[in-house]
Specification:
With 389 residues, this protein is of the alpha+beta class. The protein has helices spanning 6-13, 37-53, 58-72, 75-78, 117-124, 162-166, 202-229, 239-248, 268-299, 307-315, 354-364; strands spanning 20-26, 84-90, 93-99, 107-111, 129-134, 139-144, 149-152, 176-180, 195-199, 233-236, 303-304, 319-325, 331-334, 341-343, 352-353, 368-372, 383-387. β13 (331-334) and β14 form a beta hairpin. It is globular and about 75 Å long.
C-alpha cells in the first residue's frame, strides 16, 4: 500500500500499456461496517472480470486480475482500511491506495488509460499536512486534513527505528569495563582484589546516536515524503527533541511550530486536534496568498476566472496554477485538443464535470492544482487560473 502523492497522480495520468484497470470503493475503519467491504470488493472485481472478458483473452485476464484477487484474500488488509480505496492495475502497474476520505462513487473501469480523476480533488486539497512523530527510538509519519489524521506507511529508505538507521554503529547500552588482577578477575597473584574502572562516555555516545538518528530521519523524510507531497510537516515530540531536530533539520517543509507531546502518549483524536490547531493559521495564510496572487495575475492579464478562457489556456499549457472550488460541479464536455467547452446535463452518461476535467488536464500539462473552499474562492465560476505566460 502506497501513500498517494501528486507524483503518483501524474504517473497514473501518463500513458500505460492497456488495458488499464481502475477500481474505487468506499471502505470503513471499524466493525461491523467493514465486514461487508471484502464482499463489495469481490463484486467490483467481478465487474472488472466481465469487462475484460468482452475484449481480452482469458490468459491475459487472469494475469491482470491475479493481484486484485490476492488482495481479496488478504484478511489483514481488510481489517485495517480507512474511508476509501483506489486500486490501479495494468501489465506494468499495480498500485493500492488507502484513502482518508470516501470516494465520490464506487467504480470498476477497464479502459485504455487509468481513471484517476476521482483522486484529483482529494490529492490537491489545500488543507492537507503531515506530522512526524519522533522520539529517541522510533519515527512515525501521519497525514491529515481538518477532519482526519492517519498514520501512513513509511517509504522504503526511511528508517523506522534507531536500530534501522544506525545499524552496527549504534552504541550498546553498557559500561566499558577494564579489569586489573588475576585471571577471571577474582584477584591478583598476591590476593589483591580486581579493580573495575567504568568509562563514563555512554551518555555522550547516546547523545551522538540521537543526533545521527535525527539527521537520518530528516534526510529520508525530506527525500521520500516531503518533496514528493509538497505538504507542510510538523514535528510531534517532547520539547527537548524539538530543539535537537530543528537544529539538524534541512527540510524546507518543516514548520517552526509543532506539537510538544510524545504522540504515543495522547489519543489519536487529540493528536488530530493539536495538529489542525497548529496548521490552520498556515492553511489560511496560504489561501490568502493564492487569492492575492490570482488578483495580481489577473490585473496583468496573466490570470482568468472565465471557464472558456481557462479551458483554452489549459490545453495550450499556459496554466501554472489552477484554483478549483471544492464541491462545485459544472456539467459539460471538454475537448482536450482544442479546449472547446460544451455545457450539458450531468445526468447524461457521456457528460462529465468540467472542473474535474480541467484539473486533470492541468496536472497532465505540468501545472499545479489547489482545491479551495467556496468561501475563499476569488471567482464565482468555480475556477481561477494563473498563467505562466
Amino acid at each position: 500500500m502506497r501513500h498517494l502523492t501528486t507524483d503518483h497522480l501524474r504517473a497514473l495520468l501518463a500513458e500505460h500499456e492497456p488495458p488499464c484497470l481502475s477500481l474505487f470503493q468506499v471502505t470503513h475503519r471499524r466493525r461491523p461496517e467493514n465486514e461487508q467491504d471484502p464482499i463489495r470488493f469481490r463484486n467490483l472485481l467481478s465487474e472488472l472480470e466481465s469487462s475484460l472478458g468482452q475484449k481480452y483473452p482469458a490468459r491475459e485476464t487472469r494475469s491482470l486480475l491475479e493481484p486484485f484477487q490476492a488482495l481479496a484474500r488478504d484478511a489483514d488488509f481488510w481489517n485495517h482500511t480507512l474511508d476509501g480505496l483506489a486500486i490501479f492495475g495494468s501489465a506494468d502497474t499495480f498500485l493500492v491506495f488507502k484513502l482518508p476520505r470516501a470516494v465520490p462513487a464506487e467504480l470498476a473501469v477497464v479502459a485504455e488509460s487509468f481513471h484517476a480523476k476521482p483522486l484529483v480533488r482529494m490529492v490537491q486539497s489545500a488543507d492537507r499536512y503531515q506530522v512526524l512523530g519522533l522520539d529517541l527510538q522510533e519515527a512515525k509519519l501521519y497525514e491529515g486534513n481538518r477532519d482526519s489524521l492517519d498514520e501512513v506507511e513509511l517509504a522504503e529508505g526511511v528508517p523506522r527505528t534507531i536500530e534501522e538507521a544506525l545499524g552496527n554503529e549504534l552504541t550498546e547500552p553498557h559500561q566499558t569495563v577494564a579489569s586489573y588482577g588475576g585471571a577471571g578477575g577474582r584477584g591478583g597473584a598476591h590476593g589483591v582484589p580486581s579493580m573495575h574502572h567504568g568509562h563514563g562516555g555512554a551518555k555522550d555516545e547516546r547523545a551522538i546516536d540521537a543526533d545521527r538518528f535525527f539527521r537520518a530521519i530528516d534526510r529520508a523524510v525530506l527525500e521520500h515524503h516531503s518533496r514528493p507531497s509538497g505538504l507542510p510537516l510538523m514535528l510531534a515530540a517532547l520539547t527537548q527533541h524539538h530543539d535537537l531536530f530543528h537544529k539538524v533539520s534541512h527540510n524546507p517543509f518543516l514548520m517552526g511550530e509543532g506539537i510538544h507531546f510524545d504522540p504515543k502518549s495522547i489519543p489519536a483524536e487529540r493528536l488530530r486536534e493539536e495538529a489542525w490547531r497548529t496548521v490552520e493559521p498556515r492553511y489560511l495564510e496560504r489561501l490568502a496568498k493564492l487569492v492575492s496572487d490570482f488578483g495580481e495575475a489577473q490585473s496583468k492579464y496573466l490570470g482568468s476566472g472565465d471557464l472558456t478562457d481557462v479551458a483554452q489556456a489549459t490545453v495550450a499549457g499556459r496554466v501554472g496554477m489552477l484554483l478549483v472550488e471544492a464541491d462545485r460541479q459544472i456539467p459539460g464536455r471538454l475537448d482536450p485538443a482544442s479546449g472547446r467547452v460544451e455545457f450539458d446535463d450531468l445526468a447524461h452518461p457521456e457528460v462529465d464535470d468540467l472542473i474535474d476535467d480541467l484539473a486533470e488536464l492541468a496536472l497532465k500539462m505540468g501545472g499545479d492544482v489547489v482545491v479551495v473552499p467556496a468561501g475563499q474562492m476569488p471567482t464565482q465560476t468555480g475556477v481561477a487560473a494563473i498563467y505562466r505566460f
